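Bug #77: duplicate submission created two jobs. Keeping one. Sequence:
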Amino acid sequence: MIRFAFSPVLIAAAIFAVAAAGPALAQQNSTGDDQQNSTSADAKHKKTAAREHSAKEKDKTAAREHSAKEKDKTAEKDKADGKPLLVASFGDWGVYQSQAAKGRVCYTLAQPKNREPADLKRDPAYAFISDRPAEGVRNEVSFIMGFDVANPPETADEEGDKAEKGKKRKPVIKGATATVGDQTFDLLAKSANLWVKNAAKEGQLVDEMKKGAKLEVRAMSKKGNLTTDTYSLAGFSQAMERVLKDCSGK
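Kept job's structure:
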């Protein structure tokens, strides 16, 4: 590659040498001989470069084949060890498989495209939909938020109403929700994870996600920060089709 990079410089130097030659016949002959020698040397360099390039391409092909074999071996080992294996990607969603004690687990997940407030420090977030046919589980929806999520108080009284005069009013804890279009689903917090509060509505949420363009997950942290994670639903429908295919349970 370095040799090719210098070729324009050599050509420019040869042209300059010819232009600078005097009228003397001996000098012209000398210049002509030098030019012929230069042309011959260039031809040899090109042949050498071509051979080197061919050898490098063969090495690259062998390296790619070796790498592919190693990946296949790793994938088989991971499958046997029960580690998640990426089997397909559709838009913003990846489809994975793993082997559990009770059978195969298939799921699709994605990360949010946007997180608000943008300056709030937290761990990565994920939307996670899984099938575990051996356990009779389909369309199980969960969200990993990256922080401990607060659940609203079970009583009707709000803490803000109990605040004493002159003291700073505490933020009212709002329940977490998942929204697609005009459909909103209540979520239940368990530490840093969210689940659909009414499990019977998980299938409905998945259906809305298949038809929708974006999913918004809103939750309040235990520190009182209200957050919104926005997911793109591009490729989600195809991802769920693959999950169903790989974990059909048949």
